[in-house]
Amino acid sequence: MPSIAPPGPLPRPEYQHAFFEQDDWRCRARLRSRYGHHTRTMSAEKPITETSSYGKETPVGRPDIDGRAGIFVPTAEFDLDNTTTIRKGAGIVGFGNLDGTLTVYFEANRFDESNLHKWEHKARKAYDRMVMGAPTVSKAKIDARMLEQVGIIDGMGINLKHPERLTHWLAISNVPDTAPEEPVVRWKNR
C-alpha cells in the first residue's frame, strides 16, 4: 500500500504579494505627507466648468410606445453649416439623459420621399424609430445647449409650445412650406 505523504506548505498566492506591495506604498505615502512632502493622488481635481442641462419639461429616459418625448430645434450654438449629423429642416425628437445630455432621433427626408414632405411627418417617423428602438444612423447624443425644446410628441400627436421657433428653424432651412398649420397636431389614426 503506497503511503500518502502529508501535504507541505502551500505556496503563497500571487495576489497576496501584490497586496503587500500596495500596503507598503500606502505606508510610504503616509510618511511623506507627514513630513511636508507632496504626495500624488490617483485622481486630480478637475476645475469647475460650465455645465449644461435640459429643461424640467424634457422627458427623461427612452419613452415606451405612445410615451412622451421632446421636440427640439437647434439653437444659435449649433453650427448648421459644418454639421454632418442633423440636416436643415429635420424633425428632431428625443429625451434627456441622466448626465444632462440629450439623445435625439431625427428625420430630414434625405431621399425625398413624398410622404415625408411635411415637417410633422418627419417628426413622427423619428418618434416611431425612437420608441421602437429601431437601429438607425439618424440618432445622436448631443449637449443640451445645442438644442432647444419647442414641444412634446407622443402617441396621440404633437403639441408645440413655441411654434414660432419651429417656424424660424424651417425658414432658415428654406422649407417654410413644411411647417404645421396648427400648434397641436393629432394623428388621424387615433
Please give a structural write-up.
The structure is a single chain. The protein is an alpha+beta fold. It has a domain at 69-186. 24% of the residues lie in helices and 20% in strands. It has helices at 14-34, 119-132, 163-172; strands at 69-74, 91-96, 101-107, 139-143, 147-153, 157-160, 184-186. It has a seven-stranded antiparallel sheet. The protein is elongated and about 95 Å long. The chain starts with 13 loop residues before the first helix and ends with a strand.
List the helices and strands and how they pair.
Layout lengths: L13 H21 L34 E6 L16 E6 L4 E7 L11 H14 L6 E5 L3 E7 L3 E4 L2 H10 L11 E3 L4
Antiparallel strand pairs: 1-2, 1-5, 2-3, 3-4, 5-6, 6-7
- Radius of gyration, rounded? 28 Å
Which sequence of strands runs across the widest sheet? 4-3-2-1-5-6-7
The major β-sheet equals:
7 strands, antiparallel
**Class by SSE composition:** alpha+beta
- Low-pLDDT segments, ≥5 res: none
- Per DSSP, the total helix count is 3
Q: Based on DSSP secondary structure assignment, what is the total number of beta strands?
A: 7
Distance between the termini: 87 Å
Strand fraction equals 15-25%
Query: What is the mean predicted local confidence, pLDDT?
Result: 79
| Shape, per Cα inertia axes | elongated
SSE order: HEEEHEEEHE
**Amount of helix:** 10-25%
Short description:
The protein has 190 residues and is α+β, with helices and mostly antiparallel strands.
